[in-house]
Amino acid sequence: MTIDRVGGDAVDVYLDNNATTRVAPEALEAMLPYLRNQYGNASSAHSRGREAKKALDLSRETIARVLGASQAECICFTGSGTEAINLAIKGAVSARRGKGNHIVTSAVEHPAVLNTCKSIRSLGYEVTYVKPDSTGRVAAGSVAEALRADTILVSIMHANNETGTINPLREIGTITKERNVLFHADAVQSFCKLPVTVDDLHVDLLSISAHKVHGPKGVGALYIREGVTIHPLIHGGRHEGNLRAGTENVAGIAGMGEAVRLNWPALERNSRRMMALRGRLEHGLRERVTGVTLNGHPDERLPNTVNLSFENIEAQACILELDRRGVAVSSGSACTSGSGKPSHVLLAMGIPCEACRGSLRFSLGTLTTDEEIDYVLEIVPDVVSKLREASAPAPA
Ligand SMILES: *Cc1c(COP(=O)(O)O)cnc(C)c1O
To answer: How far apart are CA 338 and CA 93, in angstroms?
Structure first.
């Protein structure tokens, strides 16, 4: 990383780690053999096949261990975090046909959850969307109130991708356990940023994704508690414990395992570092720029995320100008940005439309440096004031 404000190398400050992260060199190295000589099919009985199978087993054991799963077989590899979420929700309700047709989720979920719920509504399932408070937190009490006798599944995200707000999963999980309702958590954003262990959180199903934790894109995993039955979505061979047919992405899964092995022991250290840098960014911007408000919970928040609304600013224009100056940030989620629609997350928190349009998400990473934060603190005030001047009505 070089920051050269005079000329020469382009500035490259990546503060969009909630959208995706750089593949760790170690994860890439762990993948390469399976893309070169070790091309075996993990289902083959010969040594090439067993080599591939070993790579899958190793990643499965690593992920099971860090999540505190009772056995490696609780981990099912998928083609993305989104697929893990689809498998959890559709697979769970399909296996509970006849026991009820009501699902509880929240209004601030990722589109992977919201649109999966939308698709099963057309099959006759009813969905209750719990509203968050003004910090984006989904209270356990609100989830409890939404439960009915025919509720078969609760799906609540651990940490929000747009605001970083952390939900009280342990409290929610205590309630679902008491009521004997299955509990799925989208932990894609919290995994490797917060301690995520399935018994502490009382979850039955939990989704994670490799590319948010310095692994490759196109690999995810679903944790399924021992004894919990769900139905597969993809039918074919007997892969992944009969839950996800299709020859496994051996290289991708090896890369995911290595990324987790790297990140997990460094979790606390990385969290502290990112939180310190984020604090400097957040306070620095609020000091240097007028009309800035925080979207999200002040404390119960991912260590790397800060979402700020800038008065009288169009986030899209700001993003493009920051990009021109070598800084990558986002407005809300990558999945909805570009659609021109205000964020469903911020709207659900009761933030006025106008403030939603001027919201920027800075998501730091384990590689973010002090110099990068200095640079951002220097250019954002300038970009904001130029955009405000340009949009101000001309003097009469
Ligand atoms: C990125 C993300 C997903 C989707 O994961 P993919 O692997 O990109 O499909 C789901 N939920 C949250 C909260 C996310 O941030």
So the answer is: 33
Show the domains of the chain with their CATH numbers.
Answer: 13-23+267-390 (3.90.1150.10), 25-264 (3.40.640.10)
The string of DSSP codes covering 325-383 is TTEE-BSS-TTTTTS-PPPHHHHHTT--HHHHHTEEEEE--TT--HHHHHHHHHHHHHH
Q: Which of 219, 212, 176 is nearest to 194 (CA)?
A: 212
- Rounded-to-integer distance, Cα 257 and Cα 188, Å: 15
Q: 110 CB less than 6 Å from ligand 1?
A: yes
pLDDT tens-digit profile of 128-156? 999 999 999 999 999 999 999 999 999 99
Pocket test for ligand 1, best of 21, 80, 110 (most atoms within 8 A of CB): 110
Q: Does ligand 1 have an atom closer than 6 angstroms to the CB of 31?
A: no
CB 259 within 8 A of CB 247: no
pLDDT bracket for residue 275 (50, 70, 90): very high
pLDDT band at 338 (very low <50, low <70, confident <90, very high): low
Catalytic residues: 335
| CA 206 to centroid of ligand 1, rounded, Å | 12
Q: Which atom of ligand 1 is nearest to the CA of 219?
A: 7
- In this prediction, residues 220-244 reach a mean pLDDT of 97
Which residue, judged by its Cα, is nearest atom 8 of ligand 1?
81
Q: Is residue 201 scored above 80 in pLDDT?
A: yes
Ligand 1 pocket test target in 212, 302, 305 with most atoms within 8 Å of CB: 212
> How high is the pLDDT of residue 342?
87
CA angle centred on 260, ends 185 and 72, rounded to 5°: 65
